[in-house]
Design a protein that fits this description.
The structure holds two protein chains of two kinds. Chain A is mostly helical. Chain A contains five helices and no strands. In chain A, helix 2 (34-92) runs antiparallel to helix 5 (158-184), helix 3 (97-123) runs antiparallel to helix 4 (127-148) and helix 4 (127-148) runs antiparallel to helix 5. In chain B, strands 1-2-3-4 form a four-stranded mixed beta sheet. In chain B, helix 2 packs parallel to helix 3 (72-86), helix 3 packs across helix 5 and helix 4 (88-94) runs antiparallel to helix 5 (104-115). Chain B is globular and about 35 Å long. Classes of the chains: A mainly alpha, B alpha/beta. The interface between A and B is medium-sized, with 25 and 23 residues.
């Protein structure tokens, strides 16, 4: 696609040059002003410098976005695994010690990933996205309470199921919104 | 005994490392269950805390790293239970929590201490 545009610009430039040659009386001076030459050289150097930095900054921003998005996706994945274990306990109407171990470990990983994401957002100065993460964290505390805060010798109730599903959906929505916001930057 | 003596700056501290002094897999809430929060409070946390509050200048330092995670019921029974017995402010004054692996855990426990009734 790039070479097509380059060709189009070349043809436009050539056409303008040919037309100008027809209608303007252009002559070249044999003597030249050193100040003019320096101005042209300086202009070219500044243009090259600006382009180099603009491209560098753009690729830095892309790398930052990729890190944040990957981290948010990892949290979503971890959250899904915890939910899946919870759902199997709910359906089985019982929670074993092994189930609790797996959920505790999953919740720990999830929590650590959120803290990691918070530090990345801080590092990249993504302030409004940090606000969304704070909301996710609050939902996470409530979600964890529903899953591991009760008497585990008793099965999960339908009320716990409904509340936890609502929390889980909110967490998913907030994280997806965070990914979209980061991507739009 | 769960607690050991540490010397930090001018202040003496007692230290509990949950993974070493209690379990790498802390369990649920109730006393009857393996590695429960109540058991942790009674056998490890409370004795350490009692030692800490006998001297005003002593802090009980709890290292939470090295475990497979904590259930809410465990944390509430242990730290909330301690706050119910001694008062939230006293627990906050004499307790320091550390979790490098799960930074939000400290904030979570402080909520249970503050909300303890």
């Amino acid at each position: 696609m790039k070479w097509i545009w380059s060709g189009v610009f070349f043809i436009i430039g050539l056409t303008i040059g040919l037309i100008a040659r027809q209608f303007l009386d252009l002559t070249f001076k044999k003597d030249f002003d050193i100040a003019h030459i320096l101005t042209i050289v300086l202009t070219l150097v500044v243009a090259a410098f600006l382009q180099y930095h603009a491209l560098g900054r753009r690729s830095d921003i892309r790398a930052e976005k990729d890190i944040v998005i990957d981290q948010a996706k990892a949290i979503l994945q971890g959250a899904t695994e915890v939910r899946s274990r919870f759902l199997s306990c709910f359906l089985a109407k019982g929670t074993t010690e092994e189930d609790l171990r797996v959920m505790n470990l999953g919740l720990k990983t999830w929590s650590a990933s959120m803290a990691e994401l918070e530090s990345v957002l801080h590092e990249c100065k993504m302030i409004s996205e940090k606000g969304l993460l704070v909301e996710v964290k609050e939902e996470f505390f409530e979600y964890k309470k529903l899953l591991t805060g009760g008497d585990l010798t008793l099965p999960y109730t339908p009320l716990t199921y409904n509340s936890s599903e609502a929390r889980f959906k909110t967490i998913g929505r907030r994280l997806r919104l965070l990914i979209l916001k980061v991507n739009r930057r | 005994m769960a607690s050991e003596q540490l010397q930090t700056n001018s202040q003496t501290s007692l230290q509990i490392v949950v993974a070493k002094d209690f379990s790498e897999t802390p369990g649920p809430r109730a006393m009857g269950e393996d590695f429960s929060g109540e058991k942790f409070k009674e056998n490890v946390l409370r004795p350490g805390f009692l030692r800490a509050i006998t001297d005003d200048n002593t802090i009980l330092f709890v290292d939470l790293d090295g475990t497979e995670g904590y259930a809410t019921s465990f944390l509430e029974a242990a730290f909330g239970g301690l706050a119910r017995e001694f008062g939230s402010q006293k627990v906050r004054d004499h307790l320091r929590l550390k979790s490098d692996e799960e930074p939000y855990l400290v904030e979570e426990i402080l909520r249970y201490i503050d909300d303890a009734k």
